[in-house]
């Protein structure tokens, strides 16, 4: 039987069936006892036909405002050109700052003379001999005669217990003596120079070697007296050992002499072999 819910009679009939006294006999008791309490209804809901539950409409969200077309944005797709010579940072140029007296290794400084006497090739005359000696000593550095302040700056980085070696030719020899003399004072802490080598120094006021120099080798030529200042003496012989060698070579060839080169290399090796200063 189908119930017509569209008429008033049908509505009254539905209300009558809904009364408690009329609903107790609608389903037989034996059937009710066989239905488990936790059973789920045995039916499937077909969503393909019939009425569907209506989904409430979502509230409208405000849309983000679009940029003003009249305002021009930067073009990020364009490649930025880089000048490798100006903008590229070379890692070898980035060096940490070395504190004064913290460098625990020997300082070996070669100082050449005026470049007018130098040859473009290290294997030829001029001051090439100083460069070749420097290349044979590991850890040494070559400077010009006018780089006195740069050399002193590097010496300050070296720990006081480690040796300092100065080797100079011509004007470089005079610079080496000036550096040693300026280190011998309160301002520089009377810094020791373990070995000072001058090869035909040209000055006339550097004959006296300061007391902070432990050993000094002075080589001067028997020719061109205008370019050398002769033998050197120690200010205090008990503190400085001075050795003078007279060479038959002229000013530009004296540093190429094998015997002189042997003497210089031997003295440097002996100085480095002693290691740090003993307290």
Describe the protein.
It is a single chain. Strands 2-1-3-4-6-8 form a six-stranded parallel beta sheet, with helices on both faces. Strands 5-7 form a two-stranded parallel ribbon. It starts with 7 loop residues before the first helix and ends in a 6-residue tail after the last helix. The model is unreliable at 117-125 (pLDDT under 50). With 279 residues, the protein is of the alpha/beta class. The protein has seven helices and eight strands; from the N terminus they run αααβαβαβαβββββα. It has a domain at 100-272: Rossmann fold (3-Layer(aba) Sandwich). Helix 4 links the parallel strand 1 (107-111) and strand 2 (141-143). The radius of gyration is 50 Å and the shape is elongated.
In the CATH hierarchy, what is the class of the domain at 100-272? Alpha Beta
Order of strands in the sheet with the most strands? 2-1-3-4-6-8
SSE class: alpha/beta
Radius of gyration: 50 Å
Beta-strand segment tally = 8
Distance between the amino and carboxyl termini = 122 Å
The count of helical stretches stands at 7
Query: What are the segments in which pLDDT stays under 50 over at least 5 consecutive residues?
Result: 117-125
What is the third-level CATH name, the topology of the domain at 100-272?
Rossmann fold
Helix content: 10-25%
CATH superfamily of the domain at 100-272: Alpha/Beta hydrolase fold, catalytic domain
Largest sheet: 6 strands, parallel
The string of secondary-structure elements, in order, is HHHEHEHEHEEEEEH
Q: What is the CATH-assigned architecture of the domain at 100-272?
A: 3-Layer(aba) Sandwich
Mean pLDDT: 77
How much of the sequence lies in strands comes to: 5-15%
């Amino acid at each position: 039987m189908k119930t017509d819910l569209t008429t008033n009679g049908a509505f009254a009939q539905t209300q009558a069936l809904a009364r408690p006294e009329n609903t107790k006999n609608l389903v037989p008791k034996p059937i009710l006892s066989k239905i488990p309490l936790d059973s789920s209804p045995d039916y499937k809901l077909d969503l393909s036909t019939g009425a569907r539950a209506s989904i409430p409409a979502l509230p409208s969200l405000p849309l983000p405002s679009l940029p003003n077309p009249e305002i021009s944005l930067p073009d990020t797709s364009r490649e930025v050109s880089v000048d490798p010579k100006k903008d590229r940072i070379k890692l070898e140029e980035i060096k940490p700052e070395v504190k004064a007296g913290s460098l625990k290794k020997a300082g070996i400084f070669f100082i050449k003379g005026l470049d007018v006497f130098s040859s473009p090739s290290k294997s030829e005359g001029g001051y090439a001999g100083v460069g070749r000696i420097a290349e044979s000593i590991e850890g040494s550095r070559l400077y010009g005669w006018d780089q006195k302040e740069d050399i002193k700056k590097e010496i300050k980085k070296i720990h006081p217990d480690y040796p300092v070696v100065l080797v100079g030719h011509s004007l470089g020899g005079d610079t080496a003596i000036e550096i040693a003399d300026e280190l011998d004072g309160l301002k520089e802490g009377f810094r020791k120079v373990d070995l000072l080598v001058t090869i035909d120094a040209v000055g006339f006021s550097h004959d006296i070697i300061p007391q902070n120099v432990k050993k000094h080798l002075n080589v001067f030529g028997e020719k061109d007296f205008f370019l050398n200042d002769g033998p050197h003496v120690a200010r205090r012989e008990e503190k400085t050992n001075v050795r003078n060698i007279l060479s038959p070579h002229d000013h530009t060839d004296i540093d190429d002499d094998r015997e002189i080169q042997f003497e210089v290399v031997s003295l440097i090796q002996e100085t480095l072999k002693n290691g740090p200063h003993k307290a």
